[in-house]
Design goal:
- This protein is about 40% helix and about 20% strand.
- With about 200 residues, it is an alpha/beta fold.
- The chain is globular and about 50 Å long.
């Protein structure tokens, strides 16, 4: 829940408003379908998701039943501030390569540890944080879901069976709301966006 009681989903969907999707579906936590449907409006139907991201994506793909050469866009509602321009860049990259995801540069020095002691430092020049949207040609995504074991995202399943995935850098506004303190950051961003929209409309 963000500023003014909005769910993340309507904020996340704003970045997709100008894209002429043939179809779409919003996956909701089981038991929250009606609330999410009221928040996002009528553009896309809302269905109950599964117990994991992998399950929810599989349910969504089954509902959409895309043709092999269609493109499937997967986006986390917990990343509500990605821009329309960034979405367009990821889609364009997928149309060229068959699979593409948004990535964010890593600013922190990354350490390996065992829970108590540091065991090494990771070269962050070779590291990017996976984000969304993640976009796949449907035949590529179907093969990854069929042949690769479940993972934390669809790109990892593509990687597991040798499918190359293009990386598209996006801003840090594509961060994932994960920890309680992330809500304060998200709320500030939502308020800022609302104020800018109000100024633009006056």
């Amino acid at each position: 829940v963000l500023h003014a009681g909005d769910y993340c989903s309507p904020f996340a969907l704003r970045a997709f408003e100008g894209i002429p999707f043939q179809s779409g579906v919003v996956m909701a936590p089981p038991g929250h379908e009606d609330a999410i449907a009221a928040a996002v409006g009528r553009r896309f139907p809302v269905r109950a998701g599964g117990s994991s991201r992998a399950d929810s994506v599989a349910i969504g793909i089954a509902a959409l039943d895309p043709a092999p050469r269609d493109y499937v866009v997967v986006h986390d509602a917990a990343r509500p501030f990605v821009s329309p321009e960034e979405v367009g860049l990821v889609i364009a990259a997928a149309e060229e390569s068959g699979a593409a995801i948004a990535v964010m540069a890593v600013a922190d020095t990354l350490k390996r540890w065992d829970g108590a002691w540091i065991s090494g430092t990771v070269d962050r020049a070779e590291i990017a944080a996976a984000a969304t949207p993640q976009v796949f040609r449907a035949d590529v995504l179907h093969r990854a879901l069929r042949d690769a074991p479940p993972s934390t995202d669809e790109a990892a399943r593509c990687e597991a069976i040798g499918i190359r995935v293009a990386a598209v850098p996006v801003s840090r506004r594509a961060f994932k709301i994960t920890w309680p303190e992330d809500l304060a950051i998200a709320d500030a961003l939502a308020r800022n966006l609302a104020a800018r929209e109000s100024e633009g409309g006056s």
